[in-house]
Design goal:
By secondary structure, the chain is of the alpha+beta class. 40% of the residues lie in helices and 33% in strands. The protein contains 3 helices and 4 strands, in the order βαββααβ. It has helices spanning 15-32, 63-72, 74-85; strands spanning 2-10, 38-43, 52-60, 89-97. A hairpin with an 8-residue loop joins strand 2 (38-43) and strand 3 (52-60). Helix 1 packs antiparallel against helix 3 (74-85).
């Protein structure tokens, strides 16, 4: 099992709009790809960054599922984020493997 983590730092004035959009549109689209079995959305409470920081975490059952998501779906979904929020959101991504 793999955990795909997307950490996003959002400008204060945009955070509420971004959060609503994530819950109503973006996360459902990611889950509709069928490449992840579950997700969670977390708010970072002790972030050293300015703005508001959230982590969207998606669980994939295999590297194949994750790679298919990256090849077929990620570019378009990431483009939507940039198109809607431009420089008001900065994101970075990490892939982790469950150990225990």
């Amino acid at each position: 099992m793999l955990l795909y983590n997307v950490t996003s730092i959002i400008e204060d004035g945009t955070a509420a709009q971004w959060l609503q959009w994530m819950q109503d549109e973006h996360i459902p689209k990611v889950m509709e790809t069928g490449k992840f079995v579950s997700y969670r959305l977390l708010k970072v409470l002790d972030s050293p960054n300015e703005g508001v920081t959230y982590c969207a975490q998606y669980v994939a059952e295999s590297m194949t599922e994750y790679q298919q998501y990256q090849e077929k779906f990620a570019p378009g979904l990431q483009a939507e984020v940039f198109q809607r929020f431009e420089t008001r959101v900065v994101s970075f991504r990490t892939l982790m493997e469950y150990i225990a």
